[in-house]
Design a protein that fits this description.
about 90 residues; alpha+beta; about 10% helix
Length: about 90
């Protein structure tokens, strides 16, 4: 996966302009602490471009921050990348 420009965070905070390249990434591996309602609300809020609901299955990358993560989810309709916090 090459470095990507990230559009925006779900809560409006600024994101880094680039992300480091990663190899053999799978967000399905490991365990995480997640507030399910918080995550569901952000997915339901949808894409910032086309407003379609996001699907966790379209996660392309993850950045861990202590006990929480930022999931980078690609919109299935317009391919916009959105950062979603897990807690």
């Amino acid at each position: 996966m090459k470095a990507k420009k990230i559009a925006e965070m779900s809560d409006g905070t600024e994101l880094p302009e680039w992300r480091p390249e990663r190899t053999k990434y799978s967000w399905r591996n490991g365990r995480r602490i997640v507030k399910q309602g918080f995550l569901a609300d952000q997915l339901r809020a949808g894409c910032s471009e086309c407003k379609k609901t996001l699907n966790i299955i379209n996660t392309v990358d993850e950045m861990t921050q202590g006990l929480w993560s930022i999931l980078y989810i690609q919109c299935g309709a317009c391919s916009q990348l959105k950062a979603i916090k897990t807690t």
